[in-house]
Design a protein that fits this description.
The chain is of the alpha/beta class. The chain contains 19 helices and 13 strands.
């Protein structure tokens, strides 16, 4: 599933102080063969992916090592990634370069656990403006850059073409009103539901943006979703479920919305392009269409789920690590990595090429102009897992009103943010 995944926040582990903090750093001297390309071995840590993705990444790394023969890279895919990363950071044994999910990034940036990249970006004249601004912004803190996005995914509407034809729907819903109507029409007793609305913020949040709201303040210090816009979005999202026109994976005995869709239990899902390999494997005969998420009262809105390549602030191989990050997030490395279509390139200059190769996935790519990074500020994983999810589950269980849930998320979320 998507990279916003299920990080386990271990706050005590990320409070460790490091010698290389987030303060101003002098511009490093120009890289020379003896600096960046002395005989070194770099550790690159990421989460375990599909065999296909692991094979492709190893091909990219092999090309890098061919071009930089004095830098060897050892890729370390690990399960329970967030726990392992934070454990290693606290122990001082973390890899030189590692993945950082946008939801976890504020915790690591604020505590100076990541190397500031700006001096090297400026020295090497990296075309930083080629990255989509929301993606790059997810890895910036107090005006400094702590990672470069390696790829991204957005949410779009995936709909069952056969079921739509059965009820006379010839195009996907483009507005909230059309979504309500379509979900009602596509529901068939308790056998097939119009949509899937899991009680979780990484789906509801997209509708909050469509209503004109936001999740946190611009400086990521206070919660902002307890607003008229937030309430309007939750009333729509939960209302589909309350009225019997949507279901949850738990209610249908399925694992996640893509599974609900693949098993024919729902006709509309709000999912990312990670759904394609799953449908190819589990529902190869299912005909489906793709569209942008329906627009809300204030227009379009969706999430950008993104991950950076970041450098350990304690690495002893800063130049070699930067050389690797620069290659992996450069045009050639990123072109190769995104060639499977499982994630989209984070660089604008690769948009046309990728969109031509994967034409049917254009709705996901269109979101680049209005997507918001999946991010809640320091303590974001704890806010999501221990506050937002339980509160939304209570709404769906009928034990808490939408208004009460938003107030609870705001109150407890602000307490967590204030402690960071």
């Amino acid at each position: 599933m998507h990279s916003a995944g299920r990080f386990v926040l271990m706050a005590a582990m990320v409070t460790v102080l490091v010698a290389c903090g987030p303060g101003a750093a002098p511009t490093p001297p120009p890289a020379t063969p003896s600096d960046a390309e002395s005989a070194v071995t770099l550790r690159l840590m990421g989460w375990a992916s599909s065999p296909e993705e692991d094979r492709l990444l190893n091909e990219v790394l092999a090309e890098f090592m061919t071009q930089h023969p004095s830098i060897q890279v050892k890729f370390e895919p690990v399960p329970e990634y967030a726990t392992k990363l934070q454990t290693d950071l606290a122990a001082g044994t973390a890899a030189d370069v590692f993945y950082v999910d946008s939801l976890l990034a504020p915790d690591l940036m604020k505590r100076g656990l990541l190397m500031t990249l700006d001096p090297r970006i400026e020295r090497d004249k990296v075309d930083i403006d080629d990255f989509y601004p929301p993606l790059l912004g997810a890895f910036r803190w107090n005006g400094k850059t702590y990672g470069l996005p390696k790829d991204w995914s957005s949410l779009a509407l995936v709909w069952n073409l056969e079921r739509a034809r059965e009820v006379g729907i010839d195009r996907p819903p483009a507005t909230w009103d059309e979504l309500r109507t379509a979900a009602a029409s596509l529901t068939r007793a308790n056998q097939v539901f119009g949509a899937v609305t899991p009680p979780e913020l990484p789906r509801l949040g997209a509708f909050i943006y469509q209503a004109g709201g936001r999740l946190v303040s611009d400086d990521r210090t206070t919660m902002a979703l307890n607003s008229p816009e937030g309430l309007q979005a939750l009333e729509l999202y939960y209302g589909l479920y309350r009225d019997g026109h949507a279901t949850t994976p738990a209610d249908t005995g399925t694992q996640w919305p893509g599974d609900t869709f693949a098993k024919g239990r729902a006709a509309l899902v709000f999912e990312g392009n990670w759904i394609f390999p799953f449908l190819k494997k589990d529902a190869p005969g299912l005909g489906f269409g793709i569209a942008e998420l329906p627009a809300g009262p204030k227009g379009k809105g969706t999430f950008a789920f993104t991950v950076s390549y970041s450098v350990n602030a304690r690495t002893q191989q800063a130049e070699a690590a930067w050389t690797l990050v620069r290659y992996l997030t450069g045009r050639d490395g990123m072109r190769k990595w995104t060639s499977l279509g499982l994630a989209m390139p984070a660089r604008k200059s690769l948009e046309t090429e990728w969109g031509t190769q994967f034409k049917e996935r254009e709705p996901f790519l269109k979101a680049a102009s209005y997507a918001h990074p999946w991010q809640l500020g320091p303590g974001g994983q704890e806010i999501n897992d221990k506050v937002a999810t339980p509160a939304l589950q209570a709404v769906f269980a009928g034990t808490m009103s939408p208004r009460e849930a938003l107030a609870e998320i705001e109150r407890r979320g602000n307490e967590i943010l204030a402690k960071q």
